[in-house]
Amino acid sequence: MIKLISLMIIIIPLLSLLSCDNDKEEHSCILTEPAIVVERICHPSQNIDSSVTIVRYVVVFECRQGRLSREDEGEDSCAHHLYERLCYGQAVTLLYEEVYDLFSGQRRLRECRVIDAF
Q1: How far apart are CA 74 and CA 14, in angstroms?
Q2: 39-91 pLDDT per residue, tens
Q3: Position 58 in a domain
Q4: SS3 letters for the chain?
Q5: Is the pLDDT of residue 8 over 80?
Q6: Which end of the chain, C or N, has fewer beta carbons within 10 A?
Q7: How far apart are CA 88 and CA 6, in angstroms?
Q8: Which residues pair with 93 in a beta bridge?
Q9: Domain tally for the chain?
C-alpha cells in the first residue's frame, strides 16, 4: 500500500506537467495592417434575472487577413472606444497581435486579436 501511494505521489505530478504542455499560448509582436471599418454594432441586452442592461459593442474590420473584429461589453471596453471613435467605411491602420496555441511543439493560429485602430 505504501509503495502504491509513493508511486502515485510521483506519477500524478508528472502527468499534470505533461498536460500543461497543451495549455500554452504564444503572442506575436504588435502588427499593423491597413483596414476599413465594415461594421459597427451596439447591442443592448438585459438579463432575465435582473434589471441591469449590458451593452455589447462590436467593430468589424476588413483587411488582407480577412475580417477581424473586436467585441467587448461595457462603456470602458476597447470595443466601445473604437465604436465611438470610428465610422462605417473609414480607412484605418489596425493594430493587432496573432495568438497561437502550442501543441506538441507545433504552433496553431487561434486568433488575430485587435488591439486598436487609428
Answers
A1: 42
A2: 999 998 877 677 778 899 999 999 998 999 999 998 999 999 999 999 999 99
A3: yes
A4: CHHHHHHHHHHHHHHHHHHHHHHEEEECCCEEEEEEEEEEEEEEEECCCCCCEEEEEEEEEEECCEEEEEEEECCCCHHHHHHHHCCCCCEEEEEEEEEEEEECCEEEEEEEEEEEEC
A5: no
A6: N
A7: 64
A8: 34
A9: 1
